[in-house]
Amino acid sequence: MKKIEAIIRKTKFEDVKQALLDADIEWFSYYDVRGVGKTRQERIYRGVVYDTSYIERTLLTIVVRDVNVEKTIDAILKTAQTGEIGDGRIFISTVDDSIRIRSGERGDISLYDVK
C-alpha cells in the first residue's frame, strides 16, 4: 500500500476530484493548506500593499493499493498540471498496515471492498 499526498492549486481541486473518481479512487481526504513557495510578491489593492508570499493550496491524502498507484498519480498529473510555477507536488510513501475499524480487516482488504 502507498500513501499519496498531493498539494495542488485550489482552483484545480474539483477537476482532480472528478479525475480520481473516474479512475475508481473513491476515498481520499483533503484539507485547505497554506505554504510558502519560491515566488515572492506584493499586490496593491486600493492603495494598500498586501503580501502574497503565502500560497493557498489543497492537500489531498490518498491511501491506495500498489496496483492503483500509477493511475492515481496519472489522474492528478493530467488534471492539476498547468505548466506554470506553483502547480504543486506529489509525495509517495509506503504504508505498512491499514485496519478497518468497523470490521477489524487488515491490509489491502481494509481499503476498499473486494473486487
Structure description:
The chain is of the alpha+beta class and 115 residues long. It has a single domain (2-110), classed as Alpha-Beta Plaits (2-Layer Sandwich). The protein is 19% helix and 37% strand. The protein contains two helices and six strands. It has helices at 13-22, 69-80; strands at residues 2-9, 29-36, 42-45, 48-51, 54-64, 88-94. The strands form two sheets. A four-stranded antiparallel β-sheet has the order 2-5-1-6, covered by helices on one side. The protein has a two-stranded antiparallel sheet with strand order 3-4. A hairpin with a 2-residue loop joins strand 3 (42-45) and strand 4. Helix 1 (13-22) runs antiparallel to helix 2. The two termini are 16 Å apart.
Structural class: alpha+beta
Q: How do the helices and strands follow one another from N- to C-terminus?
A: EHEEEEHE
Number of domains: 1
Distance between the termini: 16 Å
As a percent range, the share of helical residues equals: 10-25%
CATH architecture: 2-Layer Sandwich
Q: Count the strands?
A: 6
Number of helices, where a helix is a run of at least 4 consecutive DSSP H or I residues? 2
Uncertain segments are none
How do the strands line up in the largest sheet? Answer: 2-5-1-6
Question: Strand portion, in percent?
Answer: 35-45%
Estimated radius of gyration: 17 Å
CATH fold type: Alpha-Beta Plaits
Main beta sheet: 4 strands, antiparallel
The pLDDT mean sits at 88
CATH class placement:
Alpha Beta
